[in-house]
Design brief:
42% strand; eight-stranded antiparallel sheet; 237 residues; 7% helix; mainly beta
């Protein structure tokens, strides 16, 4: 029996920390910049891009994601932002104001929005929000919008996202300041009992644009191998 248990633990999940950008699947306009950085969208109008980690993770285990965000240099004339997305498949939602998150069910999105859409109840400042099931109107946000300092300043912005499954706490630290703490049962309340999800970062532009880059610093999570099969959600490749 102990050999069977060892086999299951070794092949179902293992703690992973890596800096290899090749472990991400790039979609649409996303391009590799260097060994640690991807450009999700260039400074073109009506662009979209995504970078998905190729293996799913187990939400029964904690994770820590340390990255840097670079969201361009144009403030008033820049758009639209990025979303950290968790979804049962490597699918990407609608572009533009949807930022690659809109339309994904079930899903969790951590949004860093740099453009004011009045019809989505955006604040005037750049902002953070935690969203569910591809709903981008802030009336449906789980948390936020939380106003942030200007992110379109040509600078690298250190970002830390952590998940504590024991206390069911999701925390988001930006520029070394804790910006959001949210208590949620991710597995049951968001993913309908499924603990195995993919994660990625999506971005988009509309009639206004900016470069949107992500630089990987440290990733630590329970990586599932081989991927387990669960009901999948909606979205597009």
């Amino acid at each position: 029996m102990k050999y069977l248990i060892f086999f299951f633990l070794f092949f179902s999940s293992s703690l992973s920390a890596q800096l290899n950008i090749e472990d991400f699947r790039l979609g649409a306009d996303a391009r590799k910049l260097d060994e640690q950085s991807n450009r999700l969208v260039p400074e073109y109008t009506y662009s979209n891009g995504s970078a998905w980690y190729k293996k799913p993770i187990d939400l029964n285990q904690p994770f820590e994601m340390q990255v840097c965000l670079v969201l361009g240099c144009k403030d008033e004339e820049g758009a639209d932002g990025i979303v950290f997305v968790f979804h049962p498949t490597m699918r990407t939602g609608f572009r533009g104001e949807g930022m690659g998150f809109s339309g994904l069910i079930p899903s969790l999105g951590i949004e860093f929005d740099t453009y004011l859409n009045y019809h989505l109840s955006d604040p005037e400042a750049d902002h953070l929000a935690i969203m569910q099931n591809g709903r981008i109107h802030h009336a449906a946000s789980l948390l936020g919008p939380i106003e942030l300092p200007n992110l379109e300043d040509c600078q690298k912005h250190p970002l830390l996202i952590t998940w504590n499954p024991l206390d069911q706490i999701l925390e988001i630290t930006l520029d070394e300041e804790l910006r959001a703490t949210y208590e949620v049962d991710l597995i049951q309340d968001v993913f309908r009992g499924n603990p195995i999800v993919y994660w990625g970062v999506t971005a988009a532009t509309g009639r206004l644009s900016n470069n949107h880059d992500i630089c990987i610093k440290k990733l630590q999570f329970a990586e599932v191998y081989p991927p387990l099969l669960y009901p999948v959600g909606r979205g597009k490749e």
